[in-house]
Amino acid sequence: MLLLSIETSCDETAAAVVRDGREVLSSVVSSQIAIHALYGGVVPEIASRNHLEMISPVITQALHEAGVVLSDIQGIAVTRGPGLSGALLVGFSVAKALAFACGIPFVGLHHIEGHIFACFLEQTVAFPFLALVVSGGHTHLYHVEGFGRYTTLGRTIDDAAGEAYDKSAKIMGLEYPGGAKIDAMAQAGDAKALRLPRPMINDGTLKFSFSGLKTAMLQHVRKHPLDIAGQAANDLCASFQQAVCDVLVSKTLAALQQTGATRLVIAGGVACNSGLRAAMTRLASQQGVQLHIPKPSLCGDNAAMLAVPGNHYLEAGLASASDLDVAATWEMDRIKEILL
Ligand code: KG4
Ligand code: ZN
Fold first, then answer.
1. Alpha helix positions (H), 74-120
2. Is 239's C-beta closer than 6 angstroms to any atom of ligand 1?
3. Does the beta carbon of 300 sit less than 6 angstroms from any atom of ligand 1?
4. For 303, which of 5, 66, 150, 159 could close a Cys bridge (C-beta 3.0–4.6 Å)?
5. Are residues 315 and 251 in the same domain?
6. 87-107: per-residue pLDDT in tens?
7. What is the pTM of this model?
C-alpha cells in the first residue's frame, strides 16, 4: 500500500509517503524547537497553532518529494496519542478529513508504536524482541511479540530519560531541548570526574527513576556555579551521561535475562545519544544479542515510522472508525481495545 503518514503529537509537524511499510519515498519534518526554545520548553497552545500553520505545506511537500499526488495514496497512518491534545487534534483531524474526502481508510496509531518500528524501515526484525524506548515522555521496556502485542516490563516512575536530559540541561543554563547539547559536550568531558547517583540501578526491578539524578545536578550546580564554556561543564555532562547510560544498560540487561530475548531494539529521541549507542553496542556484543538502533533521523519524531504499523493494520483491514478521537494519554498495553 502507498501510505501518507502524519505526526503532530508534540513539537514536530511531520508527514511522509511510504510504500508497503518499508520504502520511504519522502519524510518531511518541520520542527518548532526554535520557537519553544524561547520559553524553555514546549508551550502547548503555541504548538497547536504552529501545527495548524504547517500541516498543509508539510503534507504538500511530502507528496511532492515522493513524486505522487493525493489520489495515488491508498491509506493514511496518523498519531492518535499520547501527546498534547491540541497538537494531536491537528494531524488527526486532517488525516480523517483527507481519508473521508479521498474515500480511503485511516488508522490512528500509538506514537510509541511508531518509534518501536522505525528500525523496520532499515531492516525487518523478527519477533519477539525487547524494545527500550527512550524519549522526552517515555523510558519504557517492552516485550514485543508482534504488531499490537506489547507487554510493558518496566517504566520510569518519575522523569523520562529525555526529560532528565532536558531538565538537567536547563539547570546548567543550556538552551531547550538540551539532550543533544549535553551529548555533544559530554564527548569533550571526563565521565569519571564526578560520581552522580544511579537511582534504582540495583533494586532488582525493571523500574527507572531519574528525578534523583536531576536533583543531584541541581545541587552540584548550586554549589559549583558553572562556566558553560569551561572543562568543568563538559565533565559534568560526561558524568551525567555516564550515569544515565549505566542505568539504561543495567535495566536492559536485566530485561534481556528475564525474557531470554535475543533481539534488542532501541528507539526514541534519546536513542540518538552517542554514549547510549556505544554502551548498547557493547552490551549486545557481550550478550550475543542482535541490536537494532535506527539512524538518528528515524529516532526522533517523524511520520515515516508510523507507516510500518500503519501498513500492517490497514492491510489486515484494521482501519479506524470515523468517530475515533485523539488520546492524550494511552497505555501501550491497551492498544488492542481500539485497534484489534
Ligand atoms: O522521540 P522524541 O523526538 O520526542 C518524544 O516523543 O519525546 O524525543 C525527544 C527527546 C528530547 O528530550 C531530546 O532532548 C532527546 O530526545 N534527545 C537526546 C539526544 N537527541 C535528542 N537526548 C540525549 N542525547 C541526544 N543526542
Ligand atoms: Zn517521540
1. 85-102, 111-117
2. no
3. yes
4. 5
5. no
6. 999 999 999 999 999 999 999
7. 0.96
